[in-house]
Specification:
The complex is a heterotrimer of chains A (about 250), B (about 120) and C (about 130). Chain A is built from nine helices and seven strands, in the order E-E-H-E-E-E-E-E-H-H-H-H-H-H-H-H. Chain A has about 250 residues and is α+β, with helices and mostly antiparallel strands. Chain A has two domains: about 100 residues, Roll (Ubiquitin-like (UB roll)); about 140 residues, Alpha-helical ferredoxin (Fumarate Reductase Iron-sulfur Protein, Chain B, domain 2, Orthogonal Bundle), CATH 1.10.1060. Chain B is built from four helices and no strands. Helix content of chain B is about 80%, strand content about 0%. The termini of chain B are far apart. With about 120 residues, chain B is mostly helical. Helix content of chain C is about 75%, strand content about 5%. Chain C contains four helices and two strands, in the order αααββα. Chain C has a two-stranded antiparallel sheet. The chains are: A alpha+beta (about 250), B mainly alpha (about 120), C mainly alpha (about 130).
Chain lengths: ~250, ~120, ~130
Amino acid sequence: MDDQIRLRVTRYRPDKDREPTWQDYDVPLREEWTVLDALNHVKSDIDTTLAFRWSCRMGICGSCGMNVEGEPRLTCATFLSDYAPGPVRVEPLGNFPVARDLVVDIEDFMEKLPRVKPWIIRDEEQPVDDGEYLQTPEELDAYKQFSMCINCMLCYAACPVYGLDPDFVGPAAIALAERYDLDSRDQGARERLDVLIEHEGVYGCTFVGECTRVCPKHVDPAGAIQRYKLKAAQQSVKAFLLPRALR
Amino acid sequence: MTTPRMRFSVYPFIWLAFSGGGVLAAIFLPMLVFLFALAFPLGWIEPPTYDHIAAVVGHPLTFLVLLAVFPVILIHAAHRFRYTLYDGLQVKHKGLVALLCYGGALAGSFATLVFLGNALTS
Amino acid sequence: MSDLSYRRPISVWWWTRKRTYFLFVMRELSSLFIAWLVLYLLLLIRAVDRGPAAYADFLDRAASPWLVVLNVVAFGFVLLHTVTWFSLTPQAMVVSVRGRRVPGAAIIAGQYAGLVVVSAIVYWLVTR
């Protein structure tokens, strides 16, 4: 293919610009190229000042999330030829502050994730001599889907609630909380519930469902959130009706 | 080891009312609206005689069912509309919106009680 | 270190830019029409309270053109609510019977069955 395709890329230089601008780059339209390949071509051959994040280029590290033609996508998993004849708009990942060019400030997510305690919580650790915690295939299946999250934050970019109210804990964090709640080895559901039962927790979600649609790993965070709402509601009703039983 | 008391939050209960109302709206409203807002006024189906409709509306079972169904549907609608205003129109006066929405639902619930009650006693 | 990052504003028309967002807002807007229809039914009950003349008068007024337009639109939104509510339930709830997960299609079918039963009862009660 001897064709070219135009990338229309966001540029933002915080020391010079008051707001982001566009810059066009014409790149080869190679059949097997992804948008990430095109960006790397720009950086190596056309304009070394373009800044963007990437790492594994195979859809597992979660670094290269950007808005391509307005859609949150992993640029390593998005084929350039799908947008022929172009131009292809490449913008920083939506709903996050733009630090520079295509790089966003992800501090908000980094702060929220540990809040839901995404690790195995035990009342008491099993002694090492007793060996590993055993788990059946059925027990693994209960949470496996939610463990597929690669923290790429495409779901946050897709979520209008997060866009309008950055206090919202957000899809990935809740899906990960659910992943641990459903893990048979975990005993920390109550601790996570206290964090997520609030308005900025699960009940801020209005089930738009866009997070599930953009997730590259088919985690279904929207499903996790609705299930969590029901679970929290059941717990609340129980606590309300029989407070002493929980003591 | 005693588990500490679970933190109380009102949101799960609001959500339960919202969800319940959504289910009730989904199953009760289609036929009710089709009959009373379309079929009867437009004459597609012969409207019930006054005696018959008064008997149905005045029945104690109708009283109980609609008294449970209508207010919950109103809470569902109020809750959802409140978020439509926040997210869709980005209305910032959150307290006022909440007051108007849930207040409206409350007013509607009282009206339900009064109108159904009147039908019962007459 | 001052924060020089740029926060992109969200347009009030954000929901018109993507079909799924638009459908979402329409689904949420159904709440307004549902509230109206409950009010309409309450006004009908009040008319019945007031006697045969009020009831007949209510049905006449309900046939006036603008009200019919409103109610047709509102009915459309009720159907949108029902269809979207039923289709979202399987995603929101995991139902297991005897250890096996009930497929989503069965949950949806069950809800429609419930709708049919309730509708049949209402129809029979009102028109017999």
